[in-house]
Write a structure and sequence with these properties.
The chain contains 17 helices and four strands. It is mainly α. The strands form two sheets. A two-stranded antiparallel ribbon has the order 1-2. The protein has a two-stranded antiparallel sheet with strand order 3-4.
Length: 343
């Protein structure tokens, strides 16, 4: 609910990546015969991950999932108002003025949604991975009217603005692995406000903390299973023969397009003067799809088909999840039971 408004370039890219989420998840799933055989079964672990989410407190757990779009929108707006009021209180305690930003929003851009079909050759030949110039333009949600806090922010010196930003957003901290990690305690007034609304997560509350840690470890380590490595080696060899050496894992091919997109966005006009920049209306941007993305995606598709990648990958995934479930069945069933009682 509480999100920082990024700079125009980052905001445009973030909107695009959000719109592609469905397509990316589809790319990571089954295809062809594998989809027909495995779709009904789905991920064995999915119902337990859903249960863990349902045990979340506050705004997430209370969201009217079965409500009408109007009811869901009204709920989101109410949560946003509450969050903004909490942020204002927190910022006042930190010595800063903050006016709750409860502006209405409007959807900008967008086009009719077209299904992502990453295993359909005609679709791939037209859109590649659907990332640079996909079949539909993402919708960007923008607030209507001026930011009520802009006059105050403009009055601050650079040092005051830096202090303001740190109070608002906090500062990520280094974890034991030497990586930056952000928790609600280190996320400033925004993090505090969200925690006030949501309360402790199941991991923080303790009851299922060990199980949550086990699931996190499983998700972090399962990708290194030897079964995946052998399959990726076959795919990688095929890609090298097609002139695309250097990819060790199948997802690296798609991820390489993110780097292409990010490089292009480095040239975003700082004054936001070109509303078509980085959109399907930008001919130079779209050219990247024809010259970089589509040829790579077609080679990837060829190698997935030659190695029966999707079927084999999904079977390995499901086997690993079944083993994890067998090792933690009692805890997982308790989690599902608790989630059912909480609804």
């Amino acid at each position: 609910m509480i999100t920082r408004q990024p700079a125009p370039r980052a905001r445009r890219l973030a909107a695009l990546l959000a719109a592609l989420a469905l397509g990316i998840s589809t790319l990571a799933g089954c295809s062809g015969q594998a989809e027909e055989e495995l779709a009904a079964k789905d991920s064995p672990l999915e119902k337990y991950l859903t249960a863990m989410q349902l045990l979340g407190h506050g705004s997430f757990a209370a969201f009217p999932q079965d409500g009408t779009p109007a009811e869901q929108k009204a709920y989101n707006e109410q949560v946003h108002r509450e969050a903004e009021e909490l942020v204002a209180r927190c910022m006042a305690e930190a010595g800063f003025d903050y006016t709750p930003d409860v502006r209405t929003t409007q959807e900008v851009g967008g086009s009719d949604t077209v299904d992502y079909e990453p295993d359909n050759r005609d679709w791939v030949a037209a859109y590649g991975y659907g990332m640079i110039a996909g079949p539909s333009e993402p919708v960007e949600v923008r607030p209507v009217g001026p930011d009520p806090n802009e006059p105050y922010l403009s009055s601050l010196s650079q040092a005051e603005r830096d202090a303001y930003d740190q109070a608002m957003w906090g500062m990520p901290q280094l974890n034991e692995d030497g990586e930056y990690e952000s928790t609600w305690q280190t996320a400033g007034c925004r993090g505090w406000a969200q925690h006030e609304l949501d309360g402790d997560s199941p991991q923080e509350s303790g009851e299922f903390a060990q199980l949550a840690d086990a699931i996190n470890r499983f998700e972090e380590t399962s990708s290194s299973d030897p079964g995946y490595a052998a399959l990726d080696a076959e795919w990688s060899s095929c890609m090298a023969e097609a002139g695309y050496g250097g990819f060790q894992k199948q997802q690296e091919a798609r991820e390489s397009i993110f780097a292409v997109m990010d490089t292009y966005y480095q040239n975003y006009p700082t004054d936001d003067s070109d509303p078509d920049f980085g959109t399907p209306r930008d001919s130079e941007y779209v050219k990247l799809a024809r010259t970089v993305e589509i040829p790579l995606a077609l080679a990837d598709l060829d190698c997935r088909e030659q190695t029966d990648y999707r079927t084999r990958h999904t079977r390995i995934q499901f086997d690993l999840e079944e083993r994890f479930i067998a090792d933690h069945r009692e805890e997982l069933e308790a989690l599902v039971a608790q989630a059912g009682q909480s609804r």
